[in-house]
Amino acid sequence: MKEAVLVVDMLNDFTLDSAPLKVKENAKIIPNIKALLDEKRKSGTAVIYVCDAHAEDDKEFKIWPKHCVRGSKGAEIVDELKPQEGDFIVEKTTYDGFYNTELDSLLKQLGVKKLIITGCVINICIMYTASSAVLRGYEVEIPLNCVSALDELSRQCAIAQFKNVLNVKLS
Description:
- The chain has one domain (3-170): Rossmann fold.
- Helices cover 32% and strands 18% of the residues.
- The chain is built from 5 helices and 6 strands.
- Strands 3-2-1-4-5-6 form a 6-stranded parallel beta sheet, with helices on both faces.
- The protein starts with a strand and ends with a strand.
- This is Isochorismatase hydrolase.
- Keywords: Hydrolase.
- One of its GO terms (molecular function) is hydrolase activity.
């Protein structure tokens, strides 16, 4: 079964010390994601970066501090995980990597049936993107050492949803 790795929101505005929405665990998962990408690229697996890219006046800024404004340094992928030749980048404006993006059409064009979803954070963008993937018929795997959480309760609630509602493979 043809698969792709999604790297969700591993961006400066969620990772750097100066980030407006710093996710402390991101630093810990970067080496794990890098190792997974190195392994999967060797076998020809597609790598797709799914990245927050907001307008200056995005309505999401009523909920969260201003972050990942399209074209800003904060919206850039962290240096340690920079895309390589042949990788793809899909910009999103919501928690869901499929909503109003070209992600689904890209996956269909590539013949992908299974997604390995990595990145931040497990109960927000990972959850919404995984849910959308399942509803579209994709098989989904989430390597737990390659996703970050804001706190342990959020992690456990998301894991329960993945197991009990979405039938996502957790590894």
